[in-house]
Amino acid sequence: MRRGRGDRLQRSRGHLLGVPLDVGGERAAVGAGGGLEDPRLPNEGERLGELLAGAGRTTGEYPADFDALVELWETELPEEEMPRDPFDGAGYGYTRTGDGGYRLWSSGPDRASETEDDLVRVGTPPRS
User: Which of 118, 99, 86 lies closest to 17 in space, CA to CA?
Assistant: First the structure.
């Protein structure tokens, strides 16, 4: 059974943080754990990255915040539940950066967000 959108968002780091992180596309350091292509993760992080890349190509921008990312997922993949971070069970973290790129992350093995072992994917701003 699909859960209601509000249920997902309340437990999501992306929703709770709500403040854009000052991370530029090429300047962002990936946590010691690696990127979202890390073999410890199911392919859901990669699928979210592909969804974001498609949105960037189609609209010229990434979703504004986690709520918009959830709406995009539900529009493009209505039969599938939004993926959860396999380490902590909450939603993946997401924020659009000040330069128009994005930061998508998993909490990593320590299950704490914004620590050195986070698994991070950084998207550069879409090309105009």
Answer: 118
* Sign of the CA dihedral running 72, 73, 74, 78: positive
Rounded CA gap, 56 and 93, in Å?
Answer: 18
Parse the chain into domains and list their residue ranges: 5-123
Instruction: Say which residues have a Cβ less than 8 Å from residue 7's Cβ, sequence separation at least 6.
Output: none
CATH code for the part of the protein at 5-123:
3.30.700
pLDDT digit string (tens) for the chain, length 128 residues: 333 333 333 333 333 233 333 333 333 333 444 555 565 566 777 789 899 999 999 999 999 999 999 999 999 999 999 988 889 999 899 999 999 999 999 898 999 988 898 888 899 999 86
For residues 99 and 8, give the distance between their C-alpha atoms in angstroms, rounded to a whole number. Answer: 27
Residue pointed to by tokens 């992350």: 105
Q: Which residues pair with 124 in a beta bridge?
A: none
